[in-house]
């Protein structure tokens, strides 16, 4: 009886391409991205705070803008900190689990963002083309359900595609 040996290996980490090979350019990359990242965090944080605190901004358009800002914060926080850390510490690797997490969260947040942008365009359509029916078509409960559907569809879509990607040998 012959015993068949499988020819397979497991991957524990991936090597990334560096932004630059010289240390000075890596540090410039770090400081540049840190500035851009902090500016984005500040801008999105101000939008979230403004919409959450001002009752005049509790309309469907601003609710969707709040949700979009949260998705944007998640999108930039998925990959940029790891890129900055790699530049700062002169490393080029990412673990398999880290790569999987980045893939999942990036795809989830971007897909949910596209769905939310579609809902926002529909909101503008209703506002412009059917202004008298706006309140009946757009209650606060409907907006929450639509935003939840955008987030949920993004999650399910990403779950299926990430699982299919990771099932490949």
UniProtKB/TrEMBL annotation:
Q: Which GO terms describe its molecular function?
A: G protein-coupled receptor activity
GO (cellular component) term, any one: plasma membrane
Matching entries from SUPFAM superfamilies are given as: Family A G protein-coupled receptor-like
Going by the UniProt record, its keywords in alphabetical order are: Cell membrane, G-protein coupled receptor, Membrane, Olfaction, Receptor, Sensory transduction, Transducer, Transmembrane, Transmembrane helix
The protein's topology relative to the membrane is: Multi-pass membrane protein
Q: Which domain of life is it from?
A: Eukaryota
Database matches in InterPro entries:
GPCR_Rhodpsn (IPR000276), GPCR_Rhodpsn_7TM (IPR017452), Olfactory_GPCR (IPR050516)
- State the compartments where it is located: Cell membrane
| Stretches that traverse the bilayer | 30-49, 61-80, 100-122
Example GO biological process term? sensory perception of smell
Question: Which positions fall inside the G-protein coupled receptors family 1 profile domain?
Answer: 43-169
Q: Supply the name of the protein.
A: Olfactory receptor 14I1
Name the source organism: Pterocles gutturalis
């Amino acid at each position: 009886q012959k015993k068949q040996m499988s020819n397979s290996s497991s991957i524990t980490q991936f090597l990334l391409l560096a932004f630059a090979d010289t240390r000075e350019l890596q540090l410039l990359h770090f400081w540049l991205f840190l500035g851009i990242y902090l500016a984005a965090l500040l801008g999105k944080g101000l939008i979230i705070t403004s919409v959450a605190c001002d009752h005049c901004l509790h309309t469907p358009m601003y609710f969707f803008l709040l949700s979009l800002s949260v998705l944007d914060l998640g999108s930039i926080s998925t990959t940029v900190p790891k890129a900055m850390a790699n530049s700062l510490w002169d490393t080029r690797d990412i673990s398999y689990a880290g790569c999987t997490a980045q893939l999942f969260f990036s795809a989830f947040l971007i897909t949910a963002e596209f769905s939310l942008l579609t809902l926002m365009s529909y909101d503008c359509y209703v506002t412009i083309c059917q202004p008298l029916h706006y309140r009946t078509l757009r209650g606060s409960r409907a907006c929450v359900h639509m935003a939840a559907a955008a987030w949920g569809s993004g999650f399910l879509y990403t779950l299926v595609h990430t699982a299919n990607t990771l099932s490949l040998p």
